[in-house]
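User: Predict the structure for this protein chain, please.
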Amino acid sequence: MTVQGTADPRFATVRAELERNFAERGEVGASVCVTIDGQTVVDLWGGVADPETNAPWTKDTISLVWSCTKGATALCAHILAARGSLDLDAPAARYWPEFAKGGKDEITVRMLLNHQAGLAALREPIPENGLCDWDAVVGALAAMEPLWEPGTRHGYHALVFGHLVGEVVRRVSGRSLGRFFREEVAEPLGLDFWIGLPAEHEPRVAPVIAPDPPAPGQPVARFYMVGMTDPTSIPGMVLWNSGGLLQPGAVNTSQVHAAEIPSANGITNARGLAGMYRPLALGGSSTASGSCPRTPSPRWARSPRRSPRTPPCWSRRGGRPGS
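Assistant: Here is the predicted structure, written as structure tokens:
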């Protein structure tokens, strides 16, 4: 299968390996983009965007990028912090007063960003596509008690990280997370990257291909073993209290694409992801009219992980951009 695009001769092996992905490794459609010192040295794409129609993956094909969206969401919070509008060490309830309920009054914005807030999943089931209902989700998060003592442990906030951080961004900026990202990051950088996809771009979206279930005797990730056998566990809450978002094909709808689920439904391609991270790799000099945060002094919490981490890749082949 022919791979399109460009690659600096120094990176000819990248093109060769992408071609092997299609020829030998079961890849369906993909893109890959690499920048060095601000210069694009690899921008390749190939394969099929939609196996049902056999439509090719083109230069402008975009797809849902799952948890890569979390980087975009965190960037929005850091832009506000760099401007002095958001204090990462302040209680989140300073900006979102309703969040103080349930013993959450001392949870800081930094804890939200660090997956330490103890709110890794909703406690109760929500309606189908419930994660598309912003007000309902943030209301449930504001009302619930933490699943562990905040700040003492890490636990991957797989599907609600974006609502938690995004609501803080909304309260501070007066704009939804998707709008803030579009106006402050994507548009200034010319990125084809959306959190809340406009309807006119829907025809360019490559659907996500769900992985085949494990064959008998094949190992199953511990996260899924725990979640499927114990709905009251944190992995169980992630899987069962997600409004069906993790069911095969659930993300391949215009309703999900148009919603703002800033943990998991960003839509872009490898070029868009590389373009977002390029200014950060250069020290933060060109995002949002010079307001992109420079690398902060890290304050990593040294605490044990609370729950098995959600696997970072939700599809084992096809329908996803490269990195």
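The beta strands are 3-7, 29-36, 39-50, 55-56, 62-64, 205-206, 267-268.
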